[in-house]
C-alpha cells in the first residue's frame, strides 16, 4: 500500500511540474528551467580548474543569461563514446528561463563553447517545466 501511495505522490508532483493539469500555487507561475552538466576532465585527467570555470562563466554564460543562474558542484559519471565509464568532478548550471524564443540557441551556444574550449565530447542539457516564484 505504501508503494501505491508513493507512486500517486510522485505522479501528482510530476503533473504539477509539467503543467499536466495542476496549477502552480499562489505566488508562483508556470515556467521552465534548464540544467547544463559540464564535466571538468580533459581526456582522462582533471583539467578545468576553478579559474578556468570562472572565466568560462564570465565570458560565455553570464553575457547570455545576465539575469541570474546557479552553479552547483557535482560528481559526474558517464559512458564515453569508446564505452569506458568515466568519473569526474562536474559543474551543474541551473537557469530559470524567461520564455524568450532565443533561449535554446543561447543554451546551445554555451554548450558548444564549452566543448570547443575544453575539448569535451558533450555537455548534457535537461529542460524541465517548473513553478517559479521570486
Brief summary of the model shown:
The chain has 134 residues and is of the alpha+beta class. It has helices at 2-18, 50-61, 103-118, and strands at residues 29-39, 41-42, 45-46, 70-79, 85-97, 124-132.
Ordered list of secondary-structure elements with their pairings:
Blueprint: H1 2-18, E1 29-39, E2 41-42, E3 45-46, H2 50-61, E4 70-79, E5 85-97, H3 103-118, E6 124-132
Beta-strand residue fraction:
35-45%
**What's the story with the biggest beta sheet?**
4 strands, antiparallel
Structural class by sheet pairing and helices: alpha+beta
Oligomerization category of the chains in this entry = single chain
Order of helices and strands: HEEEHEEHE
The 3D shape can be described as globular
Q: At the first level of CATH, what is the class?
A: Alpha Beta
Query: pLDDT below 50 for ≥5 consecutive residues: which ranges?
Result: 1-19
Q: Please count the helical segments.
A: 3
Q: Whole-Å distance between the termini?
A: 37 Å
Q: Biggest sheet, strands in spatial order?
A: 4-5-1-6
Provide an overview of this structure.
The structure is a single chain. The chain is α+β, with helices and mostly antiparallel strands. It has one domain: Alpha-Beta Plaits, CATH 3.30.70.120. Helices cover 34% and strands 35% of the residues. The strands form 2 sheets. It has a 4-stranded antiparallel sheet with strand order 4-5-1-6. β2 and β3 form a beta hairpin. The longest helix is centred in the first third of the chain and has 17 residues. 10% of the residues are buried. The N terminus is likely disordered.
